[in-house]
Specification:
Ald_Oxase/Xan_DH_a/b, N-heterocyclic_Hydroxylase, Aldehyde Oxidoreductase, domain 4, TAT_signal, 30% helix, alpha+beta, Xanthine dehydrogenase family protein molybdopterin-binding subunit, 21% strand, single chain, 5-stranded mixed sheet
Length: 752
């Protein structure tokens, strides 16, 4: 993992010839991105003996390559997969590459994630879409938001990190060619060494200083047949330290003089602090201070106790006499939320995300099928509870955080402490689970506000599991209605889908960036409007229903529940048409060969279910990747058991097959937890679930065998961290229908 301490800048200023820069700009991107991503606003920090060849790559005298790491490692494998991109183009073994936390710089901003947020159908290849993508990439490049999310790490890095490696390699070759007085085209590289047929050779470490001033004539990225490293199953580089306990997560940092803080926040959504009696706990062991951080943190109202140990802080906050103003949401309940969603669907047309053909043809139907589906709020419940360590001293802020948004975290900390961003230092640790929860910065603003009252001491703020689950930013509750018309031959001649939910993006724009939320939000309807099935006449719309419940991006976001809605209804249509669900899908994918190949691969591998079991299938595309899952399910005494899941995925070029298989397994388990158990309910404005006793996750003995099939592809890589989640709930629900004849249209899936 990256060092906890960023290296000091050396006095050497690295230089890169204009020809090398312009060459790098034109490789593999066409019109995108609007500006280069190779050279940062400041030279890459170096220590004695290191030479920076661009903003991403530096080389030490012994030939060790250091790569800037702009993404957070939260179990998804980016600390292994991203260095592979540089190592491939630089022609060095992965063992020669180390990583260091990237500084806050716009070249490390995530462009792909923002471009993917545009609400266009995957089959749309028109000029309007291309123009919108170009404009969005331009804006994203200027914003330079360093974000790990949207299953975009490999997709976004595929261009710039390979370019960084290829450019550094060309510069090293150029330096060798100049020293040896030979054409650069005659030089070869392998394992960190440049060589020539005349017998001369030099290591990258020996050439790095001269390479700084090299001006390569052309930069060429490798083609897939030339790959030596990409596509091979490399072991995870973070596994050993996580096994032996030396890996540093947010709760593991121990700066000198560390004290701890436990928090209590308003139990009612939107409530505020009434009063507390600080003197009542002043004599308790270890207690140092009580802080009301409500105003400074700018988020949920709450109070913290600072103490010498977390145990002391947590005991003291539990004993603190503390009362609350309930605020405007004191009567809010889950029933109220779904009542509002129903009313919105009854009264509003919503925003049309996709429409094709002539919906009026549905009036000629021989049969009409209607269905309504619903999904609950969900918490993230990452195993590492929310935490952040902050120190405010001498006009500077130091943060140690397991965050998915380093650049946003720095900005938030600077705002609370009222300092400029360059006065904030951030050390990103490993994340003990993110799933979108650590895209938020509430833990950062709290920690800074509390640290401002700690007289310069670093303060580690840790939320209890109860505070974590009851003060999450939740996946939205959602309601969806379907109407489909079939002719006498069982052909679907009309398909209408309208859903309602709150908007995550509207809330995030206001909560994180202080911007007004408005307009369509792709995450509300993704997985509905962008399905591949070739219905001639479609209309898909969504109604945004504002809610006081805080909403956040949850692993696979709208796809997580919308796939359940659509893929369950597809099975309903197959039944109405008198066709096998797999055959029905195949007939609707005649112009989608990649989807059909994924579906067939999963079905073929699954074979036949065991005695007393049934198969359910679901096919879904999200974050650019196509996934089909076949779940083998049994039902006993009203309990649903998932024994095996066959998962086929087409994610473009498989950079590291090991990681892809791990992500599919992780996604299945994560998705099953939600499908079978996940539900957040509200009563009296309070979240009713508060720990794993009433918000359970899948246990080890419940985890199914997962067989993963990776479809070979020469397409550019797409997302992999989230696409395995959406198909699992409908696959299980469809299997349950085969076993019981009961169509479960509400999550979590319950027979009793």
């Amino acid at each position: 993992m990256p060092s906890n301490q960023p290296p000091k800048k050396s006095r050497r200023h690295f230089l890169l010839g204009a020809l090398g820069v312009t060459g790098a700009l034109t490789v593999g991107w066409g019109l995108l991105p609007p500006r280069q991503r190779l050279i940062g606003s400041d030279p890459m920090p170096t220590i004695e003996g290191e030479i920076a060849l661009n903003g991403w790559v530096k080389i030490a005298r012994d030939g060790t390559v250091t790569v800037a790491m702009p993404r957070s490692e939260m179990g998804q494998g980016v600390h292994t997969a991203l260095p592979m991109l540089v190592a491939e183009e630089l022609d060095v073994p992965l063992s020669m590459v180390r990583i260091v936390q990237a500084p806050i710089d716009k070249i490390f901003g995530n462009i792909a994630m923002l471009v993917d947020g545009l609400p266009f159908h995957p089959d749309d290849h028109g000029v309007v879409k291309r123009s919108a993508q170009w404009a969005t990439a331009r804006v994203a490049r200027e914003l330079g938001l360093m974000v790990t999310g949207g299953s975009s790490s490999i997709k976004d890095a595929w261009g710039p990190m390979r370019e960084a490696g290829a450019t550094a390699r060309a510069m090293l070759i150029g330096a060798a060619a100049q020293q040896w007085n030979v054409p650069a085209s005659e030089c070869m590289t392998d394992a960190g060494v440049v060589s020539h047929a005349n017998g001369k050779h030099a290591t990258y470490g020996e050439l790095a200083a001269a390479a700084v001033n090299s001006k390569p004539a052309a930069i060429r990225l490798k083609q897939p047949p030339e790959f030596k490293l990409i596509g091979t199953p490399q072991p995870r580089r973070d596994s050993a330290t996580k096994v032996d306990g030396s890996a540093v997560f947010g709760m593991d940092v121990r700066p000198a003089g560390l004290v701890y803080a436990a928090v209590r926040m308003s139990p009612v959504i939107g409530g505020s602090v009434d009063q507390f009696v600080e003197n009542a706990i002043r004599a308790m062991p270890g207690v140092l201070q009580v802080v009301d951080f409500s105003k400074q943190a700018g988020g949920v109202a709450g109070v913290a106790v600072i103490a010498k140990t977390y145990w002391q802080a947590n005991r003291a906050i539990a004993a603190l006499p503390l009362t609350w103003h309930a605020g405007p949401n004191a009567t809010l309940s889950t029933a109220d939320v779904f009542k509002d969603l129903n009313a919105k669907l009854d009264s509003e047309a919503g925003f049309t995300y996709f429409s094709s053909g002539d919906p009026a043809l549905a009036q000629q139907a021989a049969k009409t099928i209607k269905a309504e589906y619903r999904a609950p709020f969900l918490a993230h419940a990452a195993l590492e509870p929310i935490n952040c360590t902050a120190q405010v001293r001498d006009g500077k802020v130091t943060l140690w955080a397991s965050t998915q948004v380093p650049s946003v975290a720095v900005g938030a900390a600077a705002s609370v402490a009222k300092v400029s961003k360059d006065k904030v230092s951030l050390h990103v640790t490993y994340l003990g689970g993110g799933f979108g929860r650590r895209l938020e910065v509430d833990m950062v603003t709290q920690a800074v506000a509390i640290a401002m009252a700690a007289n310069g001491a670093p303060v580690q703020v840790i939320w209890s599991r109860e505070e974590d689950i009851t003060h999450d930013v939740y996946r939205p509750a959602a309601l969806a209605r379907f109407t489909a018309a079939l002719d006498a031959a069982g052909t679907v001649i009309g398909y209408d889908n309208k859903s309602a939910s709150g908007s995550i993006t509207h809330q995030v724009l206001q909560r994180t960036f202080g911007l007004p939320g408005g307009g369509p939000d792709k995450t509300t309807a993704e997985g509905e409007f962008d399905m591949p099935y070739e219905f001639a006449n479609q209309h898909i719309a969504h109604v945004i229903a504002p809610t006081p419940v805080p909403l956040g991006y949850w692993r696979s976001v709208g796809h997580s529940h919308n796939a359940f809605f659509t893929e369950s209804f597809i099975d309903e249509l197959a039944l109405a048409a008198g066709k096998d669900p797999i055959t029905f899908r195949r007939e609707l994918l005649k112009n989608h060969p990649r989807h059909l190949a994924v579906l067939n691969a999963a079905v073929d591998k699954a074979g036949s279910p065991g005695a007393g079991r049934a198969h359910g299938v679901a096919l879904h595309q999200s974050f650019g990747s196509i996934v089909a899952e076949v779940a083998e399910v049994s039902v006993k005494a009203g309990s649903i058991h998932v024994h095996r899941v066959v998962c086929a995925v087409d994610c473009g070029i498989a950079v590291n097959p090991n990681i892809i298989a791990q992500q599919m397994e992780s996604a299945v388990v994560f998705g099953l937890s939600a499908a079978l158990y996940g539900e957040i309910t509200l009563q009296g404005g309070k979240v009713e679930q508060d720990n794993f006793s009433n918000y359970p996750v899948l246990r080890m003995h419940e985890a199914p065998l997962v067989d993963t099939i990776i479809i070979k592809s020469a397409e550019a890589p797409e997302g992999i961290g989230e696409p395995g989640v959406p198909p699992i709930a409908p696959a299980v629900a469809n299997a349950v229908f085969t076993l019981t004849g009961r169509r479960l249209r509400s999550l979590p899936l319950r027979l009793i």
